[in-house]
UniProtKB/TrEMBL annotation:
Compartment list: Secreted
Name of the protein in question: Chitin-binding domain 3 protein
Domain called Chitin-binding type-4: residue spans: 28-194
Keywords, comma-separated and alphabetical: Secreted, Signal
Primary residence: secreted
InterPro entries per record: Cellulose/chitin-bd_N, GlcNAc_Chitin_IntDeg, Ig_E-set
Organism classification: Bacteria, Bacillati, Actinomycetota, Actinomycetes, Kitasatosporales
């Protein structure tokens, strides 16, 4: 009886460690306003997307952007080779959300699993960037146009940030949203194409 009880305790401990070890992998999210490339793939608006169509919430990569994080040219995929289709500029033909410079905007995240959060940061491409090339740091403004501190709290299933689109923008741009997780070394990345 004692051996069986010990085995059960050890089995539960292993299961608990396994669940804990995978908890960061289950914390996922993406933006759907403005709609992100991964959501466009998941809802079938854009075809030939590969695996991201089944898991738009999984664009996870190293945090610390822009000093660290995914390599240039691999930012939209979070550096995940299985999601490389997100880095493909498709000749600048990704569908874009129509916006106006300076307009008030509701930036929205959907979370399939929630995680304690340091902050959310929103970057945008510079005027004159080349929409036919994969996204690089040089193509982005050096500072986020909006940062939302989150105090290591856990977000709800849907989270909206009220802000404004940057001013002085015309034409097509990418909004890069970065969700910095508080208690792992990773962040989640979402590229949304917008048309001013």
């Amino acid at each position: 009886m004692r051996k069986r009880a010990s085995a059960a305790v050890i089995g539960l401990a292993i299961a608990g460690v396994s669940m804990f070890a995978t908890s960061s992998a289950s914390s996922h999210g993406y933006t759907d306003s403005p709609i992100s490339r991964q959501k466009l793939c998941a809802n079938g608006t854009v075809a030939n997307c590969g695996n991201i169509q089944w898991e738009p919430q999984s664009v996870e990569g190293p945090k610390g952007f822009p000093a660290a994080g995914p390599a240039d040219g691999k930012i939209c995929s979070g550096g995940n080779s299985q999601f490389a289709q997100l880095d493909d500029p498709r000749g600048g033909a990704w569908p874009a959300t129509k916006v106006t410079a300076g307009q008030g905007y509701s930036f929205r995240w959907q979370f399939t699993a929630r995680h304690s959060t340091s902050d959310f940061r929103y970057y945008i491409t510079k005027n004159g960037w080349d929409s036919t090339k994969p996204l690089t740091r040089a193509a982005l403004e050096s500072q986020p146009f909006m940062t939302v501190p989150y105090g290591n709290q856990q977000p709800p299933a849907t989270l909206t940030h009220q802000g404004s689109m940057p001013t002085q923008k015309t034409g097509k741009h990418i909004v890069l949203a970065v969700w910095n997780v508080a208690d792992t070394t990773n962040a989640f990345y979402a590229c949304s194409d917008v048309q001013f």
